Each structure stands twice: as C-alpha cells, then as structure tokens.
Amino acid sequence: MRLRQKKIITAYTFLAIPLLFFIVVRFYPMVYSFWLSFTDWDLISPKKNFIGLLNYINIFKDEVFVKAIINTLKYVAFGVPAVIIVSLYLALVLNRIKKFQGFYRLLYVMPYITPLVAVSWVWKWMYQQPPIGFINNLLTILGLDSQPFLMSTSQALPSIVVTTVWVNLGYCVIIFLAGLQTIPQEYIEAAKIDGANRRQILWRITIPLLNPIIVFLAVTQSITFLRIFTQVYNMTDQGSGGPLNSTKPLVLYIYQKAFMSFDMGTAATATVILFGIIMIITLVQMIILNKNIEY
After folding, report:
1. How far is CA 231 from CA 166, 218, 234, in A?
2. What are phi and psi of 50, to 5 degrees?
3. Mean pLDDT on 190-198
C-alpha cells in the first residue's frame, strides 16, 4: 500500500468518528422523533401504534400547547432585541476603554460560562419577597413597593427574560467587540474630518459595518430563546412554568408531556414543530448572511 493511500485511509478513519457520532447522537434521534410523532406511544408500553396526523391535529386543540407557543414567541420578542441592544451599547463603551479591557471582558463573560442552574437559583433568590429577596429589599430602601416578580402572571416571564439577557450579554459583547475592532479606523477618521458627530458615525458607519454580526447574533439568540428551558424549570415553582402556565415555553411542555405524562407521541409532535421553527430561522440566517452587503 502506497503512502498516499495510507494517508487517505487515515484521514477518512478520523473523519468517520465525528460522522458516526453525528449519526448516532443527532441524526438517528431526530428521525426517530419524526416517527414517534405519528404514533401513540406512552413510553412504557412496547407497542407503538401508527395514528397518522392525529397528534398534529389534537396538539393545536391543547390550550397549554398554544400557551407554550405564545410564551416561547414572547421570550424571543422580548429577549432578542434587549440582549442585542444592551450588548452593542456595552461593546461600544468597552471598545473606548484602553486600560483593563481584558478584565472588563472577563467580568461580562463570567455569567455566560457560569452553570445556568446556579445562575437561575441565584436570580430566583434575588426575586424573593422581603427580607430575603435582594431586589425587593432594594426597592423598599428606595421607598418603592415590593413586587411579586416570579409569583405574578404578568411579571414572571419578563423576570426570566431579564435573567436570560444577563446571562447571554457576555457572549454577545465579546462578538460585538471583535466586530468593532475589525472596522478600519480610516473610515472613522474620514467621517470626523467631514464633520460627522458620534451619532452619525454610529448610524452610518459602525452599525452598517456590523450588520453581518447583528444578523448572526439575532438568529443565534433567537434559537437560544426558542429553546429556553433551564431558567424556567429552576426559577418557577416545582418547575411547572407557572404561575398558571404564564412562563411555560415549548421545551418545558415537551419535557412534561414526555416524562411526566408519558405521552411520547405528543411530545415528539411538539419537538417536530419546534424543529420546524428553528429550521426556518436557520434558513433565513443562511439566506441573509450569503447576501453581498455593499456599503
């Protein structure tokens, strides 16, 4: 056997390892979920009766499922713009800081690398009523009324959104900082010579040049909020997504259907629907990012 043939065999052998991992861990469960969505499997019985599209018809009659879809879209609608706007502002501020920039980067990225379960429980403690909750204690000191936060049907979801935005800020700030540092300073200096102020430079130079990064973060953060689970499970009472399903996202609905109600058919159906939503967003991302943007 020639040396070139040995190298080719070695290369394909190493490539086969991640390919096998993808097929076993990713592709097979995905296909199996599609199949389960057409059955009435209860997780316990070995029988999986084929029932066609009945799960897809019945699931939209479930008020809890519809509520979970609406809540999931609310997480995306509230969380994605907030995390992008705040992280862009922080990145612009940090980009002007010359001393201890590495320290500030670490400061913002620490919540992102901290285990999400721990973060969720800390924020849950902070949202508690006085004298336990830090935030309500602060409001009391300022002469304001304490708020129910996680115990309120109107405040619980925004409270979880705030926690999630705080966690994801570090990642988005680092990405924006990397983008800001690739902008040629000649553009900024030329604009200043022409009499442009900071606001004009921001809106006509900085943000247009950051457009691919903004699109990337918008899509990736949308997927993150679409798959939100850990925060809701740990911050709500007994992981129920309450009060009154006001914070229950689609992933928590899938979890409860599969491992609490043992209705794997419905859970698989909801999984397929979530997969479809994520796939559409990903395709939109690919279409937008593949466009040539001219400035």
Report:
1. 12, 20, 5
2. -75, 125
3. 82
Supply the pTM of this predicted model. Answer: 0.88
What distances in angstroms separate CA 219 from CA 72, 164, 180, 194, one per listed residue? 15, 16, 19, 35
Cβ atoms of 128 and 136 closer than 8 Å: yes
Task: State the Cα–Cα distance between residues 69 and 67, nearest whole angstrom.
Answer: 5
Is 51 within the bounds of a domain?
no
Residues in the chain: 295
- Report, as an integer, the average pLDDT of 57-79: 94
Rounded distance, CA 83 to CA 75, Å?
11
What's the mean pLDDT when you consider all of the chain? 88
The domain in which residue 135 lies consists of 58-289
Query: Which residue type is seen at 175?
Result: I
Q: How far apart are CA 172 and CA 176, in angstroms?
A: 6
The answer to whether position 82 is within a domain reads yes
Cβ–Cβ < 8 Å for 146, 132: no
Contact indicator for 74, 222 with CB cutoff of 8 Å? no
- The reported pLDDT for the residue numbered 1 is 61
Q: Domain of 142: which CATH number?
A: 1.10.3720.10
